[in-house]
Protein 1
Amino acid sequence: MTQRLTGRTALVTGSSRGIGRAVAQRLAAEGATVVVTARSMTPSRSLRGGREHVLSGTLEETVQLIERAGGRAVAIAADLEDPVQRAGLVDAAVDAVGGVDILVNNAGFADYSSIEDMGEDTFDRTLEHYLKVPFLLSQAVIPRMRASGRGWIVNIGSSTGLPPIRPFREYNKTSGDVIYASAKAALHRFTEGLAAEVLDDNIAVNVVGPSTAIMTPGAAALLPDDYDTEPPEYLAQTVLEMCTSPAKECTGRIAFSLHFPWSQQIPVMSLDGRIELPRREPPSWANPNIAADGLKV
C-alpha cells in the first residue's frame, strides 16, 4: 500500500455493495477517509419490471470490511431520489469527516426494457440517477473543492455509452439497455464539459467504466448467466488512478478498467491494497470504440 490518499476524504455513492463498495475499499486502503452512502442502512429493495428484488449488501458491511483492513469509513444513509436527503448529503459528509476531496458518482438504477415496452417512470428514474444526481452532487462539492484548491470527481460510466458494435449483435437487439446506455453517454459528455469548466480550479473530472461488465448484485438480474464479466478490482484501481493526479495532468477522460491498466502497465492491487493481481488483457470482443490505451480523450 502506497497510502497516496492519506489526509484526503472521499464520498462514494451506492457503496453498500458491488462497484461502489469495491471503490470505497480501494480508496480507503490508500489512506482516504471514506464516506459510504446508499439508500438505507438495510438491504435495498428495488422495483424492476413490476417486481420487487432484495439486493444483498449493507453500508454497515462495507464499513466493517474497510475497518478490518485498517481503513476508516463512515456510513450515511441517503435516498438520492429524495430531494431533501440528496440536498443534505454533501453537508452531512463534510460534517462527518471534515470535507470532500473526492466524489465518486456510482449510485444507479437500471431496469432494462425495450423502448416499446418501457414505462415512463423507468425512463425518468434512469436519467435521474445517471445524470441529474451527478449534476447535483458535483454542483454541491465544487465550491468546497475550489476553496481547498483541489478536487477529484469520478463518474462511473459504461462501454454501453459508446456506439454499439456493427453489425448489431444479438445483445443489442434484445438487451433493452438503450435508455441506460443513452444516460451513460450523456454522463460521459457531462464529464467532459464539467472538466473544462473547473480545470482552472484544479478539479479533475473523469469517467471510469468497466471494459466489459461487472457481476454485481444489481447487474445479476440484467446480464446473461454466461456473460464474461470482469473482477471489480480492475475498475477500483482505475478509479484510484483518476484520484491522484492534478487536473492539468488528467481530466476530461473516459477510461475503461481493463484497457487502461493493461495499456499503461499499472499494477492492479487487491481491494485492501496488499496483493498484486495478475495482468488482465482486455478481451478481443470488447467494444472496438474503446481506444487501445483505454481512454477516450
Protein 2
Amino acid sequence: MAYIMVDVESDGPIPGDYSMISFGAIKVDNALDKTFYGKLKPISDKFVPEALAVSGHSREDTLTFDDPRKVMADFKQWIGEVCTDRPIFISDNNGFDWMFVCWYFHHFLGENPFGFSSQNLGSVYKGMEKDMFKTFKHLRRSAHTHHPVDDARGNAEALLTMKQGMGLKLKL
C-alpha cells in the first residue's frame, strides 16, 4: 500500500455547489519528495469569501486556474507513477478533503483511483493515545501555511513520527 497525504483548499463547504480551489498531495515515505499540486478553475459561480480567503487566492486568481478535468487526470496519472500498489488516501480532515477529491474524480473522470475509502490522520493519533481530545498537530515539522502541499507535508511528517517515534505499525 502507498499512503498519499492530501490537503484541499476550497471556496465553500461542499463540492458541486462550491469549488475545490487547490489541493496538494505527497507520497508518504522517508524522502517526502514526491508531491502533486493542482489549482482548479471554479465549477460554480457560488463562493464564500471567508473560505476562499483561507487559500490566499482572490476570485479573479481562481478564474485563471486550470480546467478541473485536466487537473484530476494529471493527479490520477501522478498517483499511478508514484504508487506501485494500491494508493491509500489519508488526510488531516478526511471528511472534508475526501469529499472534494472523491467528488471531483467521479464527476470529471468517472472513477476514483483511491477507491471508496479514506483514512483520518487525527483519528489514528487519537487511537494511539487512547484519548479523543488529543491532537497530532504538534508532530508537524513544516509550518501549516494553508498552501496545500506544505500542509500535506506537515501531516505526512506527523504520520512518519507516529511510525518512527511512537511505534505505529505502518508499511511504507
Protein 3
Amino acid sequence: MADKKPTQKKNALGRGLGALLQDSPEKKQKQDLIPAASSAGIYEIPLSTIQVNPYQPRTHFDKDALQELSESILVQGIIQPITVRKLADDEYQLISGERRFQASKLAGLEKIPAYVRTANDQQMLEMALIENIQRENLNALEIAHSYQRLLAECNLKQEELGDRVGKNRTTVNNYLRLLKLPPDIQAGIRDQVISMGHARALINIEDIDKQLAIFKKTVTEELSVRKVEALVKALNNEDEESENKKAPALDPVRKYEIGKIQQRLANHFGSKVQLKANEKNKGEIKIPFGSASDLNRILEILEII
C-alpha cells in the first residue's frame, strides 16, 4: 500500500497523546523503520538495543513491585507492548513502558514487543509525561513535576495543559502549588508519608517553620486530613486575629464581603491571595509566588504575557 503524505506539515504539539503517537514529522526514507501504512504494527526488539527514556517523569520504582511484575511477565508474557522511537539501525529509545522494560530485563528476556514511532525530543517528552500521567501511577509530587515540565519545556499554557491531561485549571494549580512546599514536606509526599489532602492543607500556611511543625505533628501523630485542616484553620485564625489587633476593626458585613472576594481571587490564581481594605476602600492585593515558573503562571492568568 502506498504511503499517504500529509498535504501540509502538522504541529504535533497542541494535540493529545493519541495524535502524537499516531502522527510524526516527515523523515528521510532511510531513517524509517517501517512504512507509514504499517505504523500500528508490533515488533519484537532486542532489549539490548533499547536506551532508557531520558525524559522519564518517574523518579522512583518500587523494587518489590518490579520483581512481582517480572515474575508475572515470565508466566503471562508482555500483555501491553512498550513504545519506542528509532534513533538508528538497531538503536531505539524508550518512550513509554519503563517498568515493563526493566521487569523484562530482570526476567532475563532477550526481546520485547514494541510499537515503533518517530518523534523529536519535544514530542517524546510530551508523550512520556502525558502517558505516565494518564496511567495514574505517579505520586502527587511526580504529577506536579510533570505538569511543570509540560508548561516549561513543551511551551504549553495552563489551559492547553488541562486539555492534554483532562483536568481543569484548578486541579492543575493544586498540583503545581505542591512545588512551593519545603523539601522535607515534598519528600513526605513523594514517600507517601502524607497524602495530597494533607499537603493541600499545609500549603495554606505561609510561615515555613509553622508548616514544618504541623507536618511533623501530622506524621508523628498520624493525623487525618480533616484534623490537619482544622489545625491550619485555627493557626490562620490566630494570625488573622493578631493582624486585626494592629488595625481598626472593619464593619462585619464589609469584612465578610472582603473575605468572599479574597477567596474568589485565591481560587482564580491558585495561590493564597491577601486582600486588605480599610473603611475608606483603600488597600492592597498580594499574590505570592514561589518560583520564576510560578510567577509566569500568574502573569499568564493576568494575560500580561
